[in-house]
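User: Modeling request: complex.
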Amino acid sequence: ILNVEQSPQSLHVQEGDSTNFTCSFPSSNFYALHWYRWETAKSPEALFVMTLNGDEKKKGRISATLNTKEGYSYLYIKGSQPEDSATYLCALSGSARQLTFGSGTQLTVLP
Amino acid sequence: NAGVTQTPKFQVLKTGQSMTLQCAQDMNHEYMSWYRQDPGMGLRLIHYSVGAGITDQGEVPNGYNVSRSTTEDFPLRLLSAAPSQTSVYFCASTQRVGTEAFFGQGTRLTVV
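Assistant: Request completed. Predicted assembly structure:
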């Protein structure tokens, strides 16, 4: 079982603030790193899937980076809005192909 | 395009009862999986399948059974429900390793 750790567990920010979260994983046995956004009462939806060391991906105000050598990924949100409030999940797929999820970072953006 | 369809959305069972959670996908994905979500624990893998006729255990398989007779369907069976199986269950499918997972709507199961 791969160990995927996310920090912080929860975060409150003011509207307009920029913020970032961390996902840590074992650098060996890596195939791909996923980020999902999970709103209350909905299903998780994919934000990014990254496979290469140094990958950077962007979708609107949200971006992510990947460092496979040291085993971490950052998710950034620029100018947070109340609609960004959600739980952000990181997941690792290793050689066994199944996804192992972290416990998530719960973001609350206060208006 | 329906994506991943999961039923039912809600279910209450008595201890010892059995039931099947249904999951179907219409994207011709090879890979399907079942997760349970408990407070503070994120999504934990119950069982997964890499193709029709092939299934394997995940992190928390005890008390659950799966089969994959077709590419589209991946039902999860609770053999004898226990209160510890009270949880929210998600089915997901992936085209192949390294691509995004698509999730069903979730099933909130309560075992009393």
